[in-house]
């Protein structure tokens, strides 16, 4: 519900779990009032306080309380919006124009007091999530937009604040960190043109006393897949804000007369149920409002990459497909090496024509065989990249990001195509559309294996627009492919987890979480991933021993049980698996199909986080079933295992374990826990199913 009080010029946005309020000052500036536990409109009125008076000449007492901080006047807080007008003026002065409320959506309109720049602040309530974004429109001389964040979030006063976020790199994404909010500005960002492996565009804040199950948590997440920036600011007196949006330092947006700039959604969640409550709010939001076809169950897939690498041919893929079908796999995905002169990563990228030496009659016969075996057919593509050794690059060297008189840096022997160019985007859509249409493609694994460099666009009057234009073109191509091919499903990949965010999840059905498939490492990666993103989109594979990243060997059961906590995939060379391993794989895939509705659509409870040793456990709860995954990372000193207390159950209900036949009272499982029988030694694992009686 959204209400406006004309006399106090106060807007109040309410759900059953939180209230959010903002107000216009006497100078027409939008000032934040409240974000926290649910209050009535009358109660919010008691929170409103007049602007504080100056008490010295150096600190504006209202700093850090603006709904969207701008440059100008005596503001010295981190700005969310910075503009430079044609005459060089940088300060912005608010003038309120109008507002409109449409159900759960609010738009508040402003203009600059002198210049013909219009600013709209947008709010939309979706479930327990508040979406925010900004629209800018110019009716006059060109305006440079130096920074255009989607929102600034003002936190209430607490004795202290702690920050949760993730860090990482290739093969080590989503490593969770929790630390005190530093005084001054702390910036989390990607300047790579993609979301990045190294950080992810979300933060959580608490007063330092929250746990997985208890305490107030404020969380924000940006729906954008290009370069981004989130800044936390803390004053000496403890005031804390979070501002974030697309872009990076040094990159400007140019608004010509008649131009409009719309920022991506920067959404917020408040929970009184700890980090787990915030996570489940994000998961529900993503399933209900972000993911396409979120009601579907994601199929068990097989991917050929680790079995074949670039040694791809029709006979070999047919053999793998037959083995995969016999295991119960539902989606067969052929990875790199099927096109052009792509026999290694040295050449051929960009030449998206079928290699006739490897597939004499094209891809259709293989796709037909995969479909005959009862599986869907998927294909790996990397549309945004080109090898210099390719026919495409020789024909269009100007299509890549580059600067005049500067070398073109290669990573993985690749250059980045400029999708902000209309001709490049049209070319990419054309071959992708034909590929899907002519070959019965059900699934695309869309990869993006290197960040931007030399991000120039010679001869374009506004070359910086490539930073946003590239990502927007990727979105547009995916949207158009999905509209034209309703049965097509897409997985986002960027050298593993380099492009995971709410923006790409709005256009894809799942994401490749990491190239690191080591099950022990995956426990930590999946722990960080699920802080915001749901298991329904978390692709996880079972691969061979030893793992190609770490060299570690783990039991096949441990590898399966870790992967079954997300969207199960198989990535090993199954042609060489023993009969015992194949039989076990069939059993586990059948078990996964039994429990996956609970895993993919149930409420996630992180019972015990991964650590250097001991038990790690996660639980998924649906109305009639619960599934618990337990993992021993390493064994020490013959210590007895502790019981695992479950969550999210009905204390008045009873639950039956179909494996053992045992019946448990919900109240006992919640208060006292359950004993889980794990195999002895390192890397023991077990799955417990409990069905409500």
UniProtKB/TrEMBL annotation:
Chain positions recorded as substrate binding sites: 170, 335-336, 412, 445-449, 493, 515
This protein's record includes keyword Hydrolase: yes
Keywords: Glycosidase, Hydrolase
GO biological process, one term: carbohydrate catabolic process
UniProt-listed CDD domains: GH36
Family matches, as Pfam families: Glyco_hydro_36C, Glyco_hydro_36N, Melibiase
Active site: 447, 515
Domain named Glycosyl hydrolase family 36 N-terminal: residues: 29-255
Catalytic EC class: hydrolase
Family membership noted in the UniProt record: Belongs to the glycosyl hydrolase.
Protein name: Alpha-galactosidase
UniProt source species: Amycolatopsis xylanica
């Amino acid at each position: 519900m959204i209400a406006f009080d004309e006399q106090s010029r106060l807007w109040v946005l309410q759900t059953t779990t939180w209230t959010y309020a903002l107000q216009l000052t006497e100078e027409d500036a939008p000032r934040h009032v409240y974000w926290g536990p649910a209050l009535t409109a009358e109660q919010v009125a008691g929170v409103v306080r007049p602007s504080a008076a100056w008490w010295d000449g150096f600190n504006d007492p209202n700093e850090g309380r603006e709904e969207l901080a701008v440059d100008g006047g005596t503001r010295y807080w981190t700005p969310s919006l910075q503009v430079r007008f044609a005459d060089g003026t940088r300060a912005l002065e608010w003038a309120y124009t109008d507002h409109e409320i449409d159900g759960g959506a609010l738009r508040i309109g402003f203009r600059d007091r002198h210049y013909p720049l219009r600013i709209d602040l947008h709010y939309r309530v979706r479930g327990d999530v508040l979406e925010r974004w900004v629209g800018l429109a110019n009716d006059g001389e060109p305006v440079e937009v130096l920074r255009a964040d989607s929102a600034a979030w003002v936190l209430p006063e607490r004795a202290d604040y702690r920050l949760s976020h993730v860090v990482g790199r290739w093969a080590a994404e989503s490593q969770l960190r929790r630390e005190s909010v530093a005084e001054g500005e702390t910036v989390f960002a990607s300047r790579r043109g993609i979301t990045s492996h190294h950080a992810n565009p979300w933060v959580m804040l608490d007063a330092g006393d929250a746990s997985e199950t208890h305490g107030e948590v404020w969380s924000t997440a940006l729906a954008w897949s290009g370069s981004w920036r989130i800044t936390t600011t803390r004053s000496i007196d403890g005031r804390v804000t979070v501002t974030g949006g697309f872009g990076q330092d040094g990159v400007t947006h140019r608004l010509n007369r008649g131009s409009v700039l719309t920022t991506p959604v920067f959404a917020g969640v408040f929970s009184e149920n700890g980090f787990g409550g915030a996570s489940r709010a994000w998961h529900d939001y993503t399933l209900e409002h972000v993911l396409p076809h979120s009601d579907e169950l994601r199929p068990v897939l097989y991917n050929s990459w680790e079995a074949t690498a670039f040694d791809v041919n029709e006979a070999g893929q047919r053999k793998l497909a037959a083995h995969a079908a016999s295991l119960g796999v539902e989606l067969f995905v052929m990875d790199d090496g099927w096109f052009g002169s792509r026999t290694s990563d040295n050449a051929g990228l960009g030449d998206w024509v079928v290699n006739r030496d490897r597939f004499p009659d094209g891809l259709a016969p293989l796709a037909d065989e995969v479909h005959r075996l009862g599986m869907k057919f998927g294909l790996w593509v990397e549309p945004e990249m080109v090898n210099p050794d390719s026919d495409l690059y020789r024909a269009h060297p100007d299509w890549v990001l580059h600067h005049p008189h500067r070398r073109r840096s290669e990573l993985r022997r690749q250059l980045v195509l400029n999708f902000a160019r209309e001709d490049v985007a049209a070319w990419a859509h054309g071959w992708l559309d034909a590929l899907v249409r002519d070959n019965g493609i059900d699934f695309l694994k869309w990869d993006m294996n290197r960040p931007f460099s030399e991000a120039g666009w010679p001869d374009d009057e506004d070359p910086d627009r490539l930073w946003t234009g590239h990502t927007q073109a990727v979105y547009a191509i995916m949207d158009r492919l999905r509209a034209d091919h309703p049965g097509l499903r897409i997985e986002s990949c960027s050298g593993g987890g380099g492009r995971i965010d709410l923006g790409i999840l709005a256009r894809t059905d799942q994401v490749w979480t990491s190239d690191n498939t080591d099950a022990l490492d995956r426990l930590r990666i999946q722990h960080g991933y699920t802080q915001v993103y749901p298991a329904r989109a978390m692709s996880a594979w079972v691969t061979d021993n030893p793992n190609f990243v770490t060299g570690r060997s783990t039991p096949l059961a441990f590898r399966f049980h870790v992967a079954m906590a997300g969207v199960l995939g198989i990535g090993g060379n199954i042609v060489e698996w023993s009969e015992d391993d194949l039989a076990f794989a069939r059993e586990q895939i059948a078990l996964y199909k039994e429990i996956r509705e609970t895993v993919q659509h149930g409420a996630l409870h992180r019972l015990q986080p991964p650590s250097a040793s001991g038990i790690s456990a996660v639980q998924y709860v649906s109305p009639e079933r619960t599934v618990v995954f337990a993992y021993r990372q390493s064994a020490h000193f013959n210590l007895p295992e502790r019981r695992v207390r479950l969550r999210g159950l009905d204390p008045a209900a009873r639950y039956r374990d179909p494996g053992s036949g045992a019946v448990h009272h919900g109240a006992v499982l919640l208060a006292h826990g359950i004993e889980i029988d794990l195999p002895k030694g390192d890397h023991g694992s077990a799955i417990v199913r409990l069905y409500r009686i």
